Amino acid sequence: MSDFQHQAIRLTAQQQPITWLESLRSKAAADWLAQPWPTRKTEHWKYTPLQGLQKTVLHTWASSSQFLLNKTLQEELIPLDAFRLVFINGVLDEKSSNNLPEFVVRFSQADTAQQALIEKYLGKIVEGERHLFATLSNAWLDDGVLIHVPRNQRLEKPVYIVNIVTAVAAANNQRLLVVLDENSQAEIIEHYFSTTDVQNGFANALTEIHLGDGANLHHYRLNLEEEHAQHIGAVHVDLQRNARLRGFALALGSSLMRVDYQLNHRGQGAELDLQGIYLPRNQQVVDYHTNICHWVPHCTSNEVFRGIVGDSAQAIFNGRIYIHQDAQKTLAELSNKNLLTSNKAEVNTKPELEIYADDVKCAHGATISQLNSNARYYLQSRGLSRAEADVMLSFGFINELLEQIAQPVVHDYLYPRLAKLFGRDESLIAADATLAELANE
Fold first, then answer.
1. 184 in Cβ contact with 149 (< 8 Å)
2. Helices marked H in 12-111 — which ranges?
3. Is the pLDDT of residue 139 over 60?
4. Is the pLDDT at 434 greater than 60, yes or no?
5. Which ranges constitute the DSSP H helices of 170-243?
6. pLDDT (mean) for 218-234
7. Residue 371 backbone phi and psi in degrees, to 5
8. Those residues with Cβ within 8 angstroms of residue 16's Cβ, 6 or more apart along the chain or in another chain
9. Cα 181 to Cα 228: distance, rounded to the nearest angstrom
10. Are 163 and 87 in contact (CB under 8 A)?
């Protein structure tokens, strides 16, 4: 048991929890203290550096502290026509949020029927033994957001949830529960970012999603925090019969950035399409662990993650597909490609297939490469500098996934920001046109 585990439980005494969730909190607190702290010998945490988190001293909870969004931070918001909730250090900023439909409610404001729905699904998708920080999220549970779309309903606008962290040495627990009933539809964007100050706190962010029969969800999770932030998050999903999830994940990297995806096919005909991009640089870390479980027949999964790792950064990708013996006629594919732009960059990738059914079609693979010298020479021979050629080749490596983003406003928001990240804004914005001209020669 680590000092951090004791610190984390001591913080629960400073909370004012919701009475009807107390049993979940109490059990999770006991489970959290009973579980061993991950080490290098713990398979699922083998490459995740937790030393910095163990040294982090958390004496209090983060608060908004009357923090106001300045013009710079306002410009970081995605200009969506959406139902918007803005949280600053885990506290709802009502001035920056807008009116919400009856389908979206805080746990603390839920009526009797909504409380019953929350109790039915909250903390029920995964087992805490495998997801240590999901257990901590339950122990820290004092409020959250419920998005419930009733049967045959469709949210007319996306739900945009913004989580902003300022430079405070404190803890921040963020919780989202999404329940889509039969044949309902929704689009949800989770956006995590921070001030440009050096971050020194810790955020634990857990999203749970239940998709009923025939439900359809587009889900985005964007982690764009400052490079010293410490963020551990997870997305846990159950898909029922003919449900469909289209997910997109993006992480820029920080001192500790880990996101776990646990996705369960519970009903026949369920479909999953998950795409992700990670772009650590300097001495940042990004860790994506995905676990797709096919429990029933006739389900489909397609997972594609690409990473560009630069400087002395480290990336970890562990993608697992599990096919139960009853999950016949499964179609599942997993691809992870990585580009190293520095001799000091590091990536640890581990695609896994565990198959117990005999009538399935599955594939998985991973690649690690450097910039293609022939492609670089070709671009330089057409008048580009080496720096411009490297930027174009790097950006082209992820551009295929960016172009598949279904929400055009999210695409238009990310494209110039990622272009600027690579260092040559004008060159990258014009990259598609330049490459098209070269292809036509």
1. yes
2. 22-34, 51-55, 71-75
3. yes
4. no
5. none
6. 96
7. -60, 140
8. 142
9. 39
10. yes
Report the candidate in 5, 18, 4 with the shortest Cα–Cα distance to residue 141.
18
Residue 318 and residue 350 in contact, taking contact as beta carbons nearer than 8 Å: yes
pTM assigned to the model:
0.93
265 neighbors 298 (Cβ within 8 angstroms): no
How far apart, in Å, are the Cα atoms of 269 and each of 180, 326, 417? 17, 14, 37
Please give the structure tokens belonging to residue 205. 């962010």
Cα–Cα dist 151/153, whole Å: 5
The number of C-alpha atoms within 13 Å of 55 and in the hemisphere containing its C-beta is 7
DSSP state of 155: -
The interaxial angle of helices 373-381 and 386-402, nearest 10 deg, is 110
- pLDDT(305) > 80: yes
Which residues make beta-bridge pairs with 285?
A: 254, 314
Confidence band, pLDDT 50/70/90 cuts, at residue 437: low
Element (DSSP H or E) covering residue 157: none
Residue 428: is its pLDDT beyond 90?
Answer: no
- Which residues on neighbouring strands pair with residue 294, listed in sequence order? 265, 323
Size of the chain in residues: 441
Block residue for tokens 């690409």: 306
Which phi and psi angles does 62 have, rounded to 5°? -70, 155
Residue 342 has pLDDT above 90, yes or no: no
Position 107 scores a pLDDT of 96
**Residue among 51, 88, 91, 54 at smallest CA distance from 69:** 88
User: Mind listing the pLDDT tens digit for each residue in 343-401?
Assistant: 999 999 999 999 999 999 999 999 998 776 777 767 777 777 766 677 777 778 898 89
| Three-state SS at 219 | strand
Q: What is the DSSP string of 163-186?
A: EEE-S-SSEEEEEEEEEE-TT-EE
Tell me how crowded residue 339 is: count the other CB atoms within 10 A of its CB. Answer: 23
Instruction: Measure the CA–CA gap between 214 and 267, rounded to whole angstroms.
Output: 10
Sign of the dihedral through C-alpha 295, 159, 405, 341: negative
Q: Which amino acid is at 422?
A: F
Look-up: residue for tokens 């997801």? 131
Q: Under a CB-based contact definition with an 8 Å cutoff, are residues 196 and 227 in contact?
A: no
Label residue 127 exposed, middle or buried (CB < 10 Å: 0-12, 13-18, 19+). exposed
- Beta carbons of 326 and 356 less than 8 angstroms apart: no
